[in-house]
Amino acid sequence: MIKSCSPEAIAIAYRNHARETAHQSAEVKGIEDAIAALKIHLRHKQQQLEQLRRSQPTEEQLEESRQQAKLHADRINQLSRELQAEAKALKAIADEITPLYWQVYHKPFITGFSNISVPHVRSDGDVWTILNKLV
């Protein structure tokens, strides 16, 4: 087909083909660049999603934490009962020796028993409350 054309026509055909090829190459390059940018954006969004998933505790993690908190609350309540018993025993001793202590030292043996409190953890199932129980 080109053999039958004039040299000028052949030159024009080659120029047109070169222009079209350059235009197509530029379009392909632009599409490839856009795809690469979208892949980077997708990876970034996937990383953000993964970080969000890690930062939001699952129900299983919440339940494990609740169980740990319950163990600590039970231990606090146990220590509270022990401390309450010890304070009552101390008060009983103080009540017993205070009259004699007044006679010897002219001052009380121990003061402040009306203000002694111990922590106590209580839960209604959803909300936990720490109270101070008076001894």
TrEMBL record:
Residue stretches of biased makeup (Basic and acidic residues): 51-70
Residue ranges, annotated region (Disordered): 48-70
UniProt-recorded name of the protein: Uncharacterized protein
